[in-house]
Design goal:
cytoplasm, 2 helices, Vimentin-type intermediate filament-associated coiled-coil protein, single chain, rod-shaped
Length: about 170
Amino acid sequence: MSAPPALQIREANAHLAAVHRRAAELEARLDAAERTVHAQAERLALHDQQLRAALDELGRAKDREIATLQEQLMTSEATVHSLQATVHQRDELIRQLQPRAELLQDICRRRPPLAGLLDALAEAERLGPLPASDPGHPPPGGPGPPLDNSTGEEADRDHLQPAVFGTTV
């Protein structure tokens, strides 16, 4: 076998050198990629740890908030029960006072005529008694002689009470 020509040897050497350079370059890139992956893995692990801590804190905060809300709910329910009892008591009081309110409304409806009657009685008191006169001659506009079917008691009462109205207002 004959020796390969020098050109082939140089080409083969150049090719081997290029392969070695390429291998070294790839190894350098692989090392860089491994460092990058390792750094990313560390960052991800740290980030995962931070997220787990935040998630744990959120869980504790949620539990605290649930406890607070349960306490508020119990307080609100107690308040509702208290208010319902108060409403029931007031409803009972209203039921008891309703007849009295109706009576007062009836009194208020009757007040104006009663006030008119009291004014008329006061006017009668102001006028005073009739002057004494002869029973045979009644004053004009006054009561007339006793009727035929009268018992005469009315005349006796008029004789005993000379005032028109014997009341004071």
